[in-house]
Amino acid sequence: MIRLRVKEIAEEKQISISQLAKLADVDYKTVRKIFRDPQVVIDLFTLDKLCWALEVTPAELIYYEPTPPLIWQKRLEQLAGEQKDKGKRRVDQEERDYEQEEQ
Fold it and tell me: Per the CB 3.0–4.6 Å rule, which of 9, 19, 49, 101 could disulfide with 24?
């Protein structure tokens, strides 16, 4: 997951949405949108302006937590389910083999 830390950094520096919009020369609605949704897509030009206004680097402004894409999460869940089914089938087969040996 990648998200912007604009709100957190602005709050740490006690900068309001309107102050940041003026400092960065970015539309107020854009800054408000970034505050409300830290995963909003912005262009590099806006990112550069926000970094300058907040006196931070892009690395400080962007938070990254590795997460597999949704398609991979679903596939991993599917594989886990398949492994569970294989294990259950193996146990069932072992029980049948045992019962046949007992007869």
Answer: 49
